[in-house]
């Protein structure tokens, strides 16, 4: 393993924490009387993995991109409910609320977002359920948006609220990555309702469940915000 990394891990007490947790699992693994202890230990290891992965993340490395001819039309749908239960958002009255460590918290309209510089990316979307597709997304780089609004770029987290109550959050390094956009279009057309109209997050550096659709609010914070699947035990970092 990388020597600098080992030193960083040691300095942060992560290696020590890992060994302690390992013993904890051995001690609790067979104890049927305290299954919650095993769960706690596994959760602690998952959190530790999140932190190690965050340390390993290369902010300048780009994920693979694909030719526009490979864009799947229409994209594949997924949510924690059926596509027939999607409740379309009205783009004319929609507003994006801002909170936390952001200087200018004036709410944004769709026209405001459309007026910012846009970027197009053709990237693979990977869902933990075991399927993927190549999609073409156009929108405002999240970095540009955070800079324009005077967000504290040294904060730890960027958190999202959505119209369907699917809280989500990513680390600041992922938020500032060039392949992370507030997507307004798919394949050159405004997002269709099932895919997050008017605005959803698309990032090439996270698994599918960390790409919230129908965003209604963005908060910059140092307090761990968690997320919908994360609160059910899925890893929070979920990088790729
Ligand atoms: N608001 C909201 N965003 C969401 C979800 C959801 O249920 N609600 N599901 C997530 C999951 S698990 C996946 S795989 C992708 C699916 O995005 P797609 O419909 O564009 O394929 O959206 C993510 N974002
Ligand atoms: Mo997913």
TrEMBL record:
It holds the Pfam family Oxidored_molyb. Residues 88-229 form the Oxidoreductase molybdopterin-binding domain. This is Molybdopterin-dependent oxidoreductase. It comes from Acidisoma silvae.
């Amino acid at each position: 393993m990388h020597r600098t990394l080992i030193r960083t891990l040691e300095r942060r007490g992560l290696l020590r924490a890992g060994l302690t947790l390992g013993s904890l699992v051995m001690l609790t693994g067979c104890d049927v009387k305290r299954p919650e202890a095993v769960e706690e230990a596994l959760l602690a290891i998952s959190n530790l993995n999140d932190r190690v992965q965050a340390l390993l993340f290369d902010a300048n490395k780009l994920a693979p991109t694909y030719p526009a001819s490979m864009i799947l039309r229409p994209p594949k749908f997924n949510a924690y409910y059926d596509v027939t239960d999607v409740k379309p958002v009205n783009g004319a009255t929609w507003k994006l609320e801002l909170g936390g460590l952001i200087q200018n918290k004036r709410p944004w309209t769709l026209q405001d977002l459309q007026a910012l510089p846009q970027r197009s990316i053709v990237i693979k979307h990977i869902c933990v359920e075991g399927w993927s597709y190549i999609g073409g997304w156009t929108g405002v780089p999240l970095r540009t948006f955070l800079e324009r609004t005077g967000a504290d770029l040294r904060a730890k987290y960027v958190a999202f609220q959505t119209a369907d109550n699917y809280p989500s959050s990513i680390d600041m390094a992922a938020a500032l990555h060039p392949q992370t956009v507030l997507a307004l279009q798919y394949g050159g057309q405004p997002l269709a309702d099932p895919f997050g109209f008017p605005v959803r997050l698309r990032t090439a550096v996270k698994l599918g469940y960390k790409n919230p659709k129908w965003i209604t609010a963005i908060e910059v914070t140092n307090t761990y915000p968690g997320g919908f699947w994360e609160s059910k035990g899925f890893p929070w970092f979920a990088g790729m």
